[in-house]
Structures are given as C-alpha cells and as structure tokens.
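User: Predict the complex.
Assistant: Input components as received:
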Amino acid sequence: MDWVKIDKKGLSVLPAGAHIDPLSACQTALITHGHADHARPGHHQVIATPETLAIMAARYGDDFAVIKTPLGYGETMQLGDVQIGMAPSGHILGSAQIILEHNQTRLIAAGDYKRKADPTCAPFEIVACDIFITEATFGLPVFRHPDPQAEIKRLLKVAGLFPERSILIGAYALGKAQRVISLLRAAGYNAPVYLHGAMQNLCDLYQAHGVELGELRPASISERGKPSKELQGAIILAPPSAMHTSWARRLTDPLLVFASGWMQVRQRAKQRGVEFPLILSDHADWDDLLATIEEINPREVWVTHGREDALIHACQTRGISARALSLIGYDEAME
Amino acid sequence: MRGFSELLDALIFSPRRNVKLAHLAGWLRQTPHPDRGWGLAALTGDLRFAHVKAGVVRELAAEVSSPELFALSYDFVGDLAETVALLWPSEPQPGEEAEDLRLAEIVTRLNAIPRAEVKGVLAGWMDRLNVAERWALLKLATGGMRVGVSGRLARTALAEAFEKDIGEIEEVWPLLSPPYDALFDWLEGRSGRPQAEGRAVFRPMMLAHPADDGLAENFTPDDWQVEWKWDGARIQFVSAEDGVRLFSRTGDDISASFPELVQDMAWKGVLDGEILAGSPQKIGSFNDLQQRLNRKRVTSRMQQEFPVFIRAYDILLAGEADLRNLPLSQRRQRLEAEMAAIDTGWLDISECLAATDFDQLVKLKEQSDPRIEGIMLKKRDSLYIAGRPKGGWVKLKRDPKQADLVMLYAQRGHGKRSSFYSDFTFGAWRDGDNGAELVPVCKAYSGFSDAELKKLDKFVRDHTLNRFGPVREVEQKLVVEIAFDQLHPSRRHKSGIAMRFPRFHAIRWDKHPEEADTVEQLRQFMTRDNS
C-alpha cells in the first residue's frame, strides 16, 4: 500500500496528484470539511462537497481557488488513476469522508467525524473499505460524551437561576455554534438568540442550506454606555476567542459557558475560565471511535491526529492492525 | 448525592465569592437534614473516615481499564479520582432514575464497615451514579474536596440561608460537630443558641477600619484610646475549664505553633492581643516571628532561638463574665486589673499613648521603630463587636516605603477582575552575568483605580512577549512606584529580598525603565530596618 503517503503538505494521493486537507497551497486539494485548519485558501483546484465550497467562499471570498469542483455525497469522479467519492461524516454541514479507490483497494479518509445525532448536518454513513483513516481527537477512554440534549437542559436550568445575567456561550463559529442553537430550539428555547458579529455570516449560510435556527439577532454592544437591557438573561453566542475580550466585558455580569468536548475534564474547563462547561462535541468519542472501526471492520486503521496511542492500542487488542500517521498542523482548539 | 454533586460543580466553576455563596445557601436551604450537615462537613474538611484511605481509589482504578489505557488517561486528566469516575464502565441510563444515594447513607455505611469492605461498597455505589456523582463520591470518601470553600465562606452561606448574623454563627461554630444537629435546631428555631460558656473556643474578633480623611477633623483626644500598632500577628488567647488555646484572627487554632503559651493556668478568660517575637523587654522583628508561624510542631530549640510573647490589647471574658457589652474604657480597667493576676513572663499589656491633637498622632505614627506599623485609635465608648463595626476602631498606618520597579509579568485576576490582567510581578535591576538585568522582587495587585486597571490591562495585551499558561511576560518598559511596609532578607527569592505588603502607589508612565531602582538600593531599606 504505497499510493497514499505523508509529505510536508499532509496526506498525498500520488496517482491522483492531489492532497487531502493540505496544510499549504497545492495543485489539487480534496477537502473534507470547512474548518480553517482543513480548508485553507490558495489551492489551484479544490474538490469538495457543494456545502464545503460554499463555506470556503463565505470565509475566503469567491476567488479562494481557480477551479472549484463540487462533488456531492454519493457522487464519484475520476482523478488521474483514482476514483473519488464522498460520504457524509456527520461533523458539520458539508463534511465528508473522502473515498479513494485505486488498484482494487478502497481507502477512506474520514476527516473529522461524529456519530451522535446532529440536525445541522447529514449523519455519518458506514462505507466498507480496506483502509480506514480515522481521527483520534477524543481517543482516550475517559471521553464518553453525554447526551447533547441532556447537556442543553442542564444549561437552561442553571441559566434559569440567574435571570439577570447574560449567558455567553463560547462556541466555534462554524458547526458548533449552529448545533448549539438547534439544540436550544429542540429543547423548546424560543427566545431570540444573540450573535457576536463573527457568527452571523455562517449562521446565514446554514439557514440558506435549510437548517432551522429560529430568530437570530446581533449582540451589538456599543463601545460606550451600558449593554442594552435586552441582553440581560439572553443567550449570546460568540467565538471562544471573544470570551475574554473587552467586548465580553461590556456585557452585564456574563455567565461564561464553553461548548466543547474538552469540557468533560474539569481542569481543562477551569483553565478556560468557564463557569459552565457544556460538554458538546462534534467529534466521535471513545466509544464511537471504536464502534465505527468495528462496524467498518477494515483491514487496516491509520490514525491521523489526536490521542493516537490509546486508539492504536485498543485496535490492536481487537486484532485490527493500526498505525499512527502523526499528521501535525490540525488545530484541536477548534473543538 | 445528585444535588451535592451539582453543588460541587457549581462551586468549582464559580469564579466569584458571591456566586459560590448563592449556590451554597440555596443548597443548604433545599437539602434535608442530616445530609446537609454531612455535606457541609465534607466541604469544610471536617469529614473523615477512619477506614477509607486514598489508596482505595487506586484499587478501583485497577478494575476500570487496562493498565495501558488507564496510564494514558490519567496522564491526560491529571486527577486520579476524576480519571476513575470518567472510566467507570457502567452508567445509569437516562430516564432510569434510581433512588438517589443519600449522604447520610454514605456516612453511616463508611463509618460502620471494616477497611476490607470499603472498595466493594464504593464500587456498588459507583454503578448507580453518573460521572459527576462518582467523582463527588470518591472525593467525599477520601477527603480533600478542594472546591474553594473556606470555613468562613460556609458559615457566611449559613448566615445567608437562615438569615442569621454571621458573628453569632462564628461564635457557636467551634462548639459544633458534624452533622451539626444543634446548629440547625437553633437556625430553624427548634431550640436556643448553643452555649460557649466554660469552653476554650474562639470568639469572633473586632477589627479596625483604615483611617479616612475625616479623622483629622473628628479627632477629639478624650474620646479615643491610642496605642501602637505592632507588626506581629493578631491573636486571641483563651483559657477555660477544658484547656488553653491560641487562635488566629480568622479563628484557626494555632496552639500547636506556640506550645509555651498554652500551658494550663489558673486564670480563666479571653484576651485579644498581638503575638510578637522576642520578649516584652526586647521585641524581635516580624521576620523572627515568621519562623514560628504556621508550624505544626515546634522544637524546644526553636522556642529558645525565636521566643515569642503576647501583648494584650483587650479582654473579652474574665472568668465567666462576658465583658464584650461593656465600653472599652471599662474593659481596659478590667484588663489592667486581670493582668496583675496573671503571673507570667510572656504576657504584657499594650501601652496607651497620649496625644493632644491630630498632628501629634501623625508624628507618633511616623516614628521609626520598624516593629511598629503605625497607631491604633479605639473609641473609649466602643463595645466589643465582632467584625468591622462603624465608628469603633481605626488604624493609622505609617507612610510606606516606596521603590520604582519595572513590570515583568502579568496574570489575570479573579472574580470581577477575571478578564483583566490585574496581578503583576515587578523587578529591580542588578548586575547579572550579561550586564544589568531585572530580577523579580515582588507581586502587587492592589492600589490602582478601575480606570488605571483598564489601562494596565491594555498595556499588558499590547506588550506581551510570551505566554506561560495564564501568565504573560511583558516588555520591560513600564515603571510603577510600589509602596511596601518592610523588606526582609529571603533565601527563597532570587533577588534575596522579600517585600511585605507591596502595592501600587503610582504608575509612572513617564519614567524610563533604566531609572528604576536596583536591588542594592532596596537592600538599604533592609539594613535600616533591621539595625
């Protein structure tokens, strides 16, 4: 098996002359999903799902690549000597497992994925293959993410204790934010949700793709003067980087929430300075990583990024051959 | 357990004291007895199980996962009990609401079983609990919650929850033991307040306000008792039927650090005073006293090398008689009379000073003895009231010493300052191997206004060189005038000096860092002080 290799741009598919989620500009890029560490601008050609192309255009402008080749879920195309296909990965809107077939071998680069229900994107699809390339962001048995709906209920209960405080939820602007909103709606929270400026664009894009987010309003706070009464007791979403800025400081006594799978570990949550850790992940947890691998039952598992040691150990004890690709450059802070 | 584990999480993640208080008070009101009493004891570190050792968590760990996976997990999580709680294999299904495990049941059971059964019993409970509850159970069983609840905070929450005066709760606290039946009976009006008579327990102390600008006009010499403010440690000395004890200002029993002062004596009563190094004839420095503070045991050599004595300020009880509702003038007379009855070399009485006007007071406070921090003014008609009552006692501190220092590091503050860089490390110059270098000499986080804090925060954000976790290293360019009370030699600090009570005096945006002081210049304060 020598036609997929690691080079300094990342995972290289030699007979297709392409890279998967390349770390720097290249000729042809196969992009799994729109997060900035996977979908970078400056490639000559980008092959991705139509949703991912739309996300890249929204973030980088329409000229993010010279050639944009949409490839929807279930579609295939030929690239050099390789047949390429896409299957949903359940991570965020448009996220895909990239299916590569060459010399009667099928290899799947799953990108980032999760198995828990998420109404903002298509669910992960099991596709049989010889080699399954998996992430391992939460590749430790301590990570067993709780039921998302129960987490949101826990949050709404605490929010109810402090009706005069603004509930400021730090969530990554692409994917996590929209998932939080849709979970709030599913829990019966019908009040307007307020958005930090950096969130609006992508929420609009989700809504344009048919994801129901309810009423959204800008959380505008003027430099001077007090935040409007409207924001007291309201739920506000902001990117994690905005949680400790002067913008956040102008809110009335905000209750800081951070929505991430890392919040399962107390020290991690404390380091973040959050008052309410909302355990909500867009990655597969330990049980789901193992269940996915067992269901697909590939000949070989390659582990890209994350805590690969434990996952490889667990695969080997189950008689599945596994090895680490040690890809670096993907940012775990985005979870 | 359900409510308790939710409380623990809320306490851990609440940065601010008043939010912690609200959570705690709410929980105290809602939780049935005796669960609330046991929980309270667990929070304040007063709950111990003789047969539960910390090692039991390791034994449980061996059951939850393979050694390889456990080691990788523990390495990531960092806390043994949390790792076990997270790895525990079984989980109650949502909707499958098992009957809640009550704290009282846990306590009764853990006290009743032999050590060999502890692991099995804990494991049985763990199967019924969710992650947060499992963690809470392990912490409860093995002690050491570390959720940021001091005894004082817990008692304040009790006062808030049951609308009582915190002073009253402080007073009865030492008489109580878990699960505090007598306390809750009193708080809920089923019985009277527990009585402290005849017991060697702490009585809440009266504290002083810093002097304000109005003092100069309102100072009428006849109404005030004037004393030196000694640079020692405030204490309460209690002699009663059941023993002799020494308490810190916050009510901690510090008897073990000072065995020579807590010998049985015929005199009974409660004194308020200062513990000082040396003897009444030759008072030592605060640095000498520090050799004796915070020690669990003290050798007789330490006692000889660093002797201590008590200088009495006030008297709260004489025998059974409670004097706290008498005016200070009468308490002082009683104190003088009682002192004559206590025959010991390690106790004397604080001298009263004469001042005819405010200018004289100012002169008094500026006298140069480094063992004196300033002067105390006490209203002659003031009753002994716990806490900081208005119009009672005033402290007038000597103008501090000052140094120009350069900001080196900044750290985010806590509570309402949590998003601001408000804790700073400052350095002074010295000759290093590669020329002049700045070496840290103190940390300061007070003395600036809110407006200045914003400017400092912006300075830190705009001039960050490096980040080390929560700490930022800043460009060495901002000079701040730091005021401090004293300097002491220190082997623990790189600079060889330790500063007492450093705080901002002025931010010198105008000064260049080269103009800041040197370690050598600072040392001169030290030689002057200790001579």
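The interface with chain A takes residues 10, 12-15, 19, 22, 26, 65-66, 68-69, 72-73, 76-79, 82-83, 86-87, 91, 94, 131, 135, 412, 418-420, 469-470 of chain B (CB under 8 Å).
Let me know if you want any component modeled separately.
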